[in-house]
Amino acid sequence: MGVGRSYCVALVGLNGFVVEVEADIGQTLPAFVILGLPDASLNEAKERIRSAALNSGIPLSRRKITANLIPASLPKRGSGFDLAITMAVLRAAGDIRSISETVFMAELGLDGRLRPVRGILPAVMAAVQAGYPDIVVAEANVAEAMLVPGAKVRGYKTLARLAYDFGADPKDLALDYDPPADEVHDDDSSARPVPDLCDVSGQSEGRRALEVAAAGGHHMLLTGPPGAGKTMLAERLPGLLPDLQDTAAMEVTAIHSLAAIRTSAVRLIRRPPFESPHHNATSAAIIGGGSGLPRPGAASRAHRGVLFLDEAPEYERRVLDALRQPLESGELVIHRSAGTAAYPARFQLVLAANPCPCGKASGKAKDCTCTPTMRRRYFGRISGPLLDRVDIQLQVERVSLAEFGQSGAEEDTASVAKRVSAARHRQLDRLGSFGFETNSQVPGRVLRGKLRLPPGSTQVLDTALERGLLTARGYDRVLRLAWTLADLEHSAAPNADHIGRALGLRQATATS
After folding, report:
1. 386-411: per-residue pLDDT in tens?
2. Which of 63, 342, 440, 448 to pair with 259, CA 20 to 30 A apart?
3. pTM to 2 decimals?
4. Is 285 exposed, middle or buried (0-12, 13-18, 19+ CB in 10 A)?
């Protein structure tokens, strides 16, 4: 007997590392030892593997089995190593022929069934990039694994069938049987219905602001009394966004593969995701966290889509302020004692807020019971540095009876989405050489450099900066808004009117 080898993938965040699994069968008393920083669930694999092998007709050796996961310094988590350890042990015992450089990823049931695991898409991507294209997974994970270009994927229902195909001789057992119907899941969010913009009565300013936000990828704050339509507007933003391209769709699907409780995706997620966590959500739920290596939170699940925080002042202030880093960098780096994980988080943030605790301190309402101090304290829970990163800050007023009574007078999502798509194409043509896709991504050095506007057109903006009404960051964000307004109106560059309207979109709540 020699040393058996197989391969698996360990995920740290969305980054995958190929792990070599060594197995040795000694001459001492029966034991099963797993080395290489396994967590509790991986340590439990010893009992799962023994039972699965026995019930598959290929019982393991009664001698001491040692499995070593290389590199030993990399923490290993989860049940996805079950199959790779089993195949290495069977190879060490001579029960199967060489398994060359095949990567095995599946959990084992006690009856020998191969069960799907989370994170198959990023794991297969890492294996292929590292030069290991031959992949074996549970049959329920096959569709997701095959989304990766260059991967040669084989799926199996049982350990018995897999071992048989590699030269084993399972004794007197059926090699295959159908898994329960609930073991295969379609996680394609693109099939879900999207709320239509024509459902929103009135709110012409809100609809226009929503179109600008969708066209340029800008963050929004909607302030107004309860029932004015803030949530309805926010929920219709994803429908205005264009479908995700291949690279973005792969990123989004990989995040949802890792975060999903039920596996697995059968196709790439092409529609921008929409996440709306409850206002009592913790920092770990929104930013990411958990025991051991952190899992992606709502901010990462909203990558390339929309993160909507309704009743924003009700969130803990530290939760809101934790969003400041990803709003700037498009990435979340989470540090825990077990390691550091990085997740992409380039989302559009939409905040909705009442003007005061009772919600009646706006428009023509005269029955607000809140004192000025209460109003300032309530809205002050959203910090100034966070608000400074929000491009569009709009006051949403109550809908009048005349507007509410109109039926079928509003544009639908499809009509507005066409204008958004055309504006996005103009941005890509202009910004592609700089490495950007939307106006919201353009840094100040480019806006004030190669895209610099004539001095006369920015006079109102220069005055606002000089008087302290805008920060330097706010100055750049108004310029980005102005470029988006110009793109929607087929203008080659923003003029003074575009900049004035962009400044109004940003300062709406400040002047209300």
Report:
1. 999 999 999 998 887 777 766 566 78
2. 440
3. 0.86
4. middle
